[in-house]
Each structure stands twice: as C-alpha cells, then as structure tokens.
Amino acid sequence: MNPAAFYPTSTDVLRFLPELILTIGGVVLLVLEALTGDHKDKSSLGYVSIGVVLAAMFAVPVALANPGVSFNGMIISDGFAAFFRMVTLLVGLFTLLCSTSYLSREKSNSGEFYLLVLFSLAGQGIMASSNELIMVFLGLEIASISSYVLAGFLREDKRGTEAALKYFLLGSFATAFFLYGISWIYGVTGATNLSAIRDALAKGTEAPSMVVAAAALMLVGLAFKVSAAPFQVWAPDVYQGAPAPISGFLSAGPKAAAFAIFIRIFQTSFDSLSSRYEPILWVLALATMFVGNFSALWQSNVKRMLGYSSIAHAGYVLVAVTTHSNVGTAGAMFYLASYALMNYGAFAAITHIAGRGEKHVSIDDLKGLASKQPVLAALLTVCLLSLTGVPLTVGFFGKFYIFKAAIDHHLYWLSALGLLNSAVAAYYYLRVISAMYMYEPKTTEHPEPVPAGIQLTMWCSAAGILTLGVFPGLVLDYANRFATFVK
Amino acid sequence: MNILAILLILPLLGFVAALVLPASVTKRFVLWFSLLIFGVSLLLIGTVQMRPAAMSWVTDTAWIDTPAIRFHIGLDATSLWLVILTTFLIPVAAYISQRTILHRPKEFFAYLLLLEFGLIGVFSSLDLFLYYVFWEVVLVPMYFLIGVWGGPNRIYAATKFFVYTMAGSMLMLVAILFIYTKAGTFDLPAILLQMEMGKIGFSQSEELALFLAFFLAFAVKVPIFPLHTWLPDAYAEAPTGATLLMAAVLSKMGTYSLLRFNLNLFPRASHDCAPWIVTLAIIGIVYGALIALVQPNMKRLVAYSSISHLGFVVLGIFSGNQFGLDGAVYQMLCHAISTGALFILIGYLEERNKSLEIVDFGGIATPAPNFAAVFLVATLASIGLPLLNNFVGEFLILQGAAQANIWWAAFAALGVVLSACYMLWFYQRTFFGEAKVQMADLAPREWITITPLLVLMLWMGIFTQTWLPGISASNKVLLDRTMSKTVAMEVTK
Question: Is the minimum CB–CB distance between B21 and chain A shorter than 8 Å?
Fold first, then answer.
C-alpha cells in the first residue's frame, strides 16, 4: 500500500478533534504544573482544565460535521460517538467544577488531578468513537488507568487507597477478560474491525462455539465495567472510598462510555448472535436491578447508597440494551445522559456536605439540612426525585423510554419487575429526603457556604433535570437520530 | 384563552410565586390566591352544564413528538364537580392551617398549591400519559405535607404512603405502555374511538391483565380492602389540612379513575371482575365500620369510616347500572364534604385539648353547644340521614346494587346500620356525659370555615337537581358505550 495512505489527513484530525484537544490540554497542564512551582495555589490549573473541557465540547459538533472513519478505520465519528462524547465531557466538566474547592479543602490541590481527569475523558472519548477492538481496548485502558489513580488520589486516606486498589485489581481482571475475548475473535475471524467481524460472522465460521465463547468473554469484561450483577462487587466499595467528586465521575462517565462500546460491539459485530445473548442480558438486567436496589435499602452511608443505586440504574440501561433495537438504544442513550445530570447533582451536594476529610457522609448527617441550607436541600431533592423517577423530572422520562422500548419488544415481565424495582428504590431516596426535611438539625453550627463551582453544578443539573423533564425532546431527538448508527 | 387551561396553570404559577415571596406573606398569599382559583373554577360550570355528557373546555395540543403524547384536557360533568371540589377545599385547607401551621409555614402553603395543580390535572387529563404524570405529581407535595408537618409517627406514614402508591402505579405504567403499542396513541378519546370501530381489541387474558394493572393502582389509592393499610397511618399522622384533602379529594382520584379508565377501556373485564370487586368492597364496608366501632382515636375512627364509605362508592361503580354509577359519583362529592367537615371539626377539638383520644373528651355539649350542634349535623350527614347529603348517594348506590344483585344491597346495608352505631356512640362519648374539659365554643373564624360545608350538606341533600342531571348524562354515555360492548361480547360467545 502507498505509505501516503497512512498519513492522517486534516479530516482525520477533525474527526478526532475532541480527544486531541483533551490530550494536548493535559500535556500543557503538565508543563504548567511544573512551571507554577510547589507552593502556589493550584486551583488556577483547575480553571485551565475547565477551559480545555469546554473547548473539547465545542469540538464535538466539529467532529460530527465531518462524519466518517479516520485513521484507516480505527476511529469513527458519527452521531452516536458525538452523543456519548458530550455526555462524558459534561460529567467531566461537572467533576472539575466541584473538584477545585474540594481539593483545596482536602489540601491536596495539584495539577495531576486535573490532567488525570482530562486523560480519562480522552480515553472515554476514544471508547465512544472507536470502530475497532484494539482502539476500544486502548480507550478502555486510558480511561481506566487514570481512574484508578483518581480513586486513590488522597494518599493519606485509607479508604481511598483501598478503593483504588480494589478498582485496579478487579478492573484489570475485567480488562483481561475483554482482551482475551478480542484475541479469540481475532483468531476466528482474522479481524478486529467491528464491521469486518460482523461480515466474517455473517459468512459463517468453522467454529461457532469459539465465537460464542469470545462474545461471552467480552460480555464479562464489559459487564464488569458497567457494574452489572454478578460483576458489581467492586462498585460500592470504590464509590464509597474514592473522593466524592471522583465517585460521581466514575459512576456516570466511564459507565456511559462502557455502555457505548457495549452497544456498539454487540449491535455491530455480534448482531447475528442477538437471539442467543438476549436471555443472558435479560437475567443480567434483572439481577442488576434487584441487587442494586435491595442492597441500597440498608445503607446508612449516602455515598455507598448512591453506589448501589448506580448499580440499579445500570440495570435499567441493560433493560434497554436487552431489546437490541434502535428504540432501546435511544432509550439507553437518553437515560445515560439524564443519569449523568441527576447523579452528578447528587454527588456534588454530597461533596459539599461531607466536609473536610469526608466525615459527614451518613444519612444522619443530612438531618435538618433543609432548615440550614434550604437551597442546597431543594436542589438535592430535585436530583433525588429524578433518580426516583417522579414525573416532570428527566429521570421519569428516562425510565419511560427504556420500558417503552422493552414493552415494544414484548419484554413484559422484565418491564413489570423493573418498574416495581423502582418503587423499591423510592424508599431509599426518600430516606435521604426525609432526613433533610423531616428532622431537626443535629448541630447548631453555622453551615459553610457552598463553593461557587458546586453551586453552579447543582443549578445546572437541576435546571437540566426540570427542563428535560418537561421537554425531553431536546435530547431525545438527538438520541433517536443517532441510535441508528452504521452497523 | 381556555379557562380550564388557565385554571391548571394558575396553581403552578402560585406555587413558584409562593416559593419566591417572603415567608411573612406566603400564608395570606396562598389563601387569597386559592380563593381566586376557586372563583375562576366557578366560571367553568355554565358551559359544562349545557352539554354535561360531552367534553367541554378542551385543550388538545402536541406536547412530545416521539412517542406521540398530547396535552389533552377537558371536562364533563363528573370531572367538573371533582375539579370544583378540589378548588373549593384547597382554600379551606389553607384557611384552617393559618394558625396551626407554625413550623416552616412557607413551604406548607406552597405545597398546597402544587397539590392543587396535580389534582386538577388528574381530574381533567384525557391523555393516559398526561394523566399518569399528574397522578404521580400529587404524591410529592402530599409526601412532604405528611412527613414534615404530621404527628409523631409521620415519617413512617409518609414513606408508607409514597411507596405504596408508587408501587401500585408502576404496573399501571406498564399497562399504559402496552395500550400504546396496540393503539399507537395515549389519547383516551382516540383509543375509545378505535375500540368502538373495532380497530383495536384485546384478547380476554390481555384485557384482564390490563384491567388488573389499572385496578391495582386505583385500589391502593381509594383504598379498597385489603390494600388499605397505609390509610389509617397517613390520615391519622397528617396535619388537619392535609388529612382533609386526602380524605376528601385524593381518595376520589382512585374512584374517579376506576370510573373513567377501567370501565371505559375494559368493559368486558369490568363486567367479569365485578362480583369479586364488589365482594371486596362489601368486606371493606363492613370491616371499616367494625374497626371504626372500636377505635379509641378520633382521627383513626373517621379514617376507618372512610374505608367503609369508599366501599360504597366502589360498590356503586361496579354494580354497572345507572343508579349505581350516579350514586357513586354523587357519593364521592358527599363523602368529601361530610368527612371533610368531620376532620376539620376534629382538628378544632385537637387544637383545644391537644389530644385525639376519645377518652380525653366528654361533655363538650355543655360548654360548647354550638360546636356540639354543628358536629351533630356532620355526624348525621355521615350516617346518611335523609335531607342530608350522604343519604342521596348511599340510597342510589343501594338501589343500583339491589338492581344488580339483591344480596349485594343486603350486605352493604349493614354498613349503614353500623355507621349509625359507631358515629353516634362516638358522638355520645365525646359530647355528652360529665364535662371533662373546659372548652371554648366555635370562634368566628371556625364558623367561616364550617358554614359553607354545612350549607353544602343541606343543599346536596335537598336540591339534588343542581348536580345529578349532569352526572347522570355523563354516566349514561359511559353506560351506553360499555353496555353495547358487553352485550356484543355475550352475543359472540
């Protein structure tokens, strides 16, 4: 082949622009970090990173305006990728907004934190836009390794270190499964490109059982990443132990990206196997909802409770994935976007309420919050009601679209059990709300003012929740349009 | 612009305004604003009364494109009176709470308006999805009203109320989605039209499953025995204003929806299940009355009596004839007025003596004769004395039940007898005998609240012509439609 074909063209670059900006921004931050010296206030670096993320967000429509594959089919820029890039970047933006004040409070403000977030976002962007398995693996690793470090960023904190170690060990284990699956599928089909694999499988292979095994291995790896039961055990520990803004980041961003590749791989490469994995996904979805919701019932630690609830929400998204349809994909996309809003809003509030050293994270610590900080309590309530799925919030429409897709595909039992699950979920979200509104405050201490970044995050998420709760079409139209990616 | 649409938006605007306004004026603002809403709602009556069976004040615009969800609201005579009941009782609740709600008053009064928004929406929605949205919206303010301002066991009661109702409505959501996959629309009149033209039909087992999914949600809300266990907790723990609204209006959400959705959408299943449901209703009537007989707590006593009265309404709905349906709708309104009055008066007793236990009272008639007289009227209305409102409703229901099956009427009549026992015994223990407490008579502000209710009790007991013809006409349309359906089924069998 002509070597010139390997040089990236300018269109190739444009299709990859968001990740490029994030990576270059991360490197620049690294240099800036070195230049600012040791004892300077590092929160200015946080502002730079926010700028980088905003720039990457503006680059997403640019990439979308140049649809197609780049770098010889490694990366694909389509609406599906753009949607998930936007979701992960939004989560990243919220994380950075909440982190500057958090890191100053914990006295660990340093530039590495911000660049790790940026690199993790770049990895998630690659996951969302990868068109072949090696790229998926690279994206997964870039995103995960940055996340492992972020989870244990507070070195002094034993919990955080434990979380990071668990996350790292189990995460690498999952990645190994995934990689093993890739090698099998390469052995059978001789391809790593998603559509090439599909074409090879459509022609028929000599070893169909090998294909099934490969798909199963990849499913296990991905199920780990999206914290589906029975591969969810790491999630509550990690979300509880990691710094609060990072818990929010991990439970929304990488999960959305993992779902993106989940959907892309299974609807493109393994399309022909859909009737075989549907019952497996059915069980997986139901188990995930049950484990998440029923474990969350007993938690007294809010972070841990939100960790379990994030497992349950992954279960709802799996219901949509089970349908193996465009409507289901659109439902999953919409849900992940709405989950990013409502979940991060909740974690932002917890970030502030936890106080120095994250000492105040039990439900008891929230008692009487409504009389001390009514605005914060009201915004958190909006997020929690949305997580519960009360109408006129985006969480309701998210569930509605998912279960509508499920019923369109005759998954009546799964829908009925899933929706009853969300009534169970109402109980533990209400516990938090009732602690805030229906008890007297434990202490008379004057509350600390809410930092501007956290306030901004919460107002944004609450406004988003309520706006999309009345006009879901603003995002759903995109989801519907982009769910029909090239398969 | 359409008055009904304005009426629906006003409470929401008021809610936002109440949150923004300074705390010192919220109480007054909500009272006057809700009176304004009541005034606006009265403007609806004329048009509806002219064509009571058809939908008036219809607004029908697209809300969400995919799936096609319409903002479709409208009123017939039945829903009209329930909307007016809501707009009438919200200012009453706001007025009686002016002095009793001292803790965080701003939010309390704001939630009243949010509740009104949800209730008006429930009674006027003609799109299944829109209806479901309002149905759930009602939960949130009520949860806070019970949980923040209720009695000692309030958090348990509030959570139980929320989780029970939500669990019930989840299956309804599944059913609504299933109907959509068949009909391609959430619009109730459009679905009914398609059913009439035979474009969509459900198999017998499908119809039964759908019927039960809707029924369960409404049965929790009414509540129908054995799904009633949340009610005594919620009614007893809630502050008086909220109890009034729960007993008078929220329970009607369930019965109204049974009438509007179950009977309309699933005529065959309604017909087939009627004996079972009626049995449950009769058990509820007798069971509620028997428990009320032995209740030491006044609020719980009236709560259990509500289970009994609401059993009558369900009996009327499922007796499946004109008398039964008319009686059921009429009894919904009557029960709201008489039970509402009882809860208000019990609230006054609680304010005076800081207790709800019957043993702490006695001989009130001596120091407070006017109070005793007013209470007696409410008591007699609740028992169903002729010339007072409940008599009309219960009479029509029993007549309808007798027409369907004489045994139903015979057993249900037991409830009437028992209601006389527990209410009169309650009255005797509280108002007669040795005076245990000194008690002030009715104050002017209390007269202001209770007088309209007393007037309504008499008016509804004597001049039924104001209400019944319209209600009858709208029920007749329903009966004609469902009867033709069930008869057609019988023939094809």
Answer: no
Q: Does A163 touch chain B (CB under 8 A)?
A: no
The two three-digit tokens of residue B121, written as one number: 């929406």
Give the pLDDT confidence of B332-349 residue by residue, as tens digits: 999 999 999 999 999 888
Domain of residue B280: give its range: 272-493
Q: Is residue B466 part of a domain?
A: yes
In chain B, the residue whose alpha carbon lies closest to the alpha carbon of A385 is B140
Note whether residue B450 is domain-resident: yes
Out of B159, B171, B177, whose CB is closest to A434?
B159
Judge: A407–B178 Cβ closer than 8 Å, yes or no: yes
Residues whose CB falls within 8 Å of the CB of residue B306, separated by 6 or more in sequence, listed in order: B231, B235, B247, B251, B288, B335, B339
Total domains present in chain B: 1
Question: Does residue B447 belong to any structural domain of this protein?
Answer: yes
Q: Tell me whether residue B407 is in a domain.
A: yes
Q: pLDDT tens digits for B158-198?
A: 888 888 888 888 889 889 988 988 888 888 888 888 888 88
Helix or strand (DSSP H, E) at B72: strand B69-75
Which of B140, B154, B177 comes nearest A438 by C-beta? B154
CA angle A425, A258, A457 (to 5 degrees): 60
CA dist., res. A112 & res. A12, Å (int): 29
What is the distance between the alpha carbons of residues A180 and A217, in angstroms, rounded to a whole number? 7
> Domain coordinates of chain A in residue numbers?
9-482
Tokens of B196: 């009439």
What ipTM does the predicted assembly reach?
0.86
CB contact under 8 A, B174 and A392: no
Give the mutation candidate from B161, B162, B176 for the A interface (greatest A CB count, under 10 A).
B162
Of the pLDDT bands very low, low, confident and very high (cuts 50, 70, 90), residue A12 is confident
